[in-house]
Amino acid sequence: MTDGLLGLSMGVERAEEGVMRRLPHAPTASIWADGLGRQATWVGAVIGLMALAIGYGYYQTDQPQWQTMIFTSLAFLQVFQALGSRSSTESLRCTGLRSNPTMLWLGGAVVALQMVALYTPLNDFLDVEPFGVADLALCIGAGVGLLALLEADKYFRRAWRQPHLSVSPVARATCRD
User: What are the residues whose beta carbons fall under 8 Å from the beta carbon of 59, sequence distance 6 or more?
Assistant: First the structure.
């Protein structure tokens, strides 16, 4: 539910500033070239480890909602990953949260569907345990933490001035990080 909807919203994202001034990818290069493999690996590892750590913490304390915490934290981690992955160079502050209304709508739909799964009779069918506000805040907080990591990664890559990731002077003048 989360990957598909958020993937659709990424498809209508406008092109990044200066994308046509970047060097082209080598025709023989892998899809994982130019840091994409590194990015996919560390972000996937962080998402997996965060979700499992949350679930494990609940499991160790014998809380019945440990699986639901994994399920819900994954949903929020993916929503915030989509927000942070909209641009490989510009911060979310620079691209603007509302510049892709499709993502806002579909991200909201993902969150709404997650709430339906947790807090309606559908939870019996899905075998998930509804939980309280503090548990929900932990899942949301994990997503916010991932977004902060993604934004910090973009900041440091810009600061180290990797040529294929540098922000254009126009974008730099309009948005200071």
Answer: 66
Q: CA separation (Å) from 122 to 6, 115, 129, 159?
A: 22, 10, 11, 47
Residue type, 21: R
Contact 50, 146 (CB under 8 A): yes
φ and ψ at 27, to 5 degrees? Answer: -60, -25
Nearest to 114 by CA among 68, 64, 63: 68
* Residue-wise pLDDT tens digits, 149-175: 999 999 888 888 655 544 455 545 456
Query: Is the Cα dihedral 41, 137, 79, 157 positive or negative?
Result: negative
0.70 surpassed by pTM:
yes
Neighbours of 96 (CB within 10 A): 12
151 within 8 A of 67, measured Cβ to Cβ: no
- Provide the 8-state DSSP code for 99: G
| Tokens 């979700």 -> residue | 51
Looking only at Cα atoms, what is the longest distance across the chain?
55
Domain ranges of the chain: 2-11+35-174
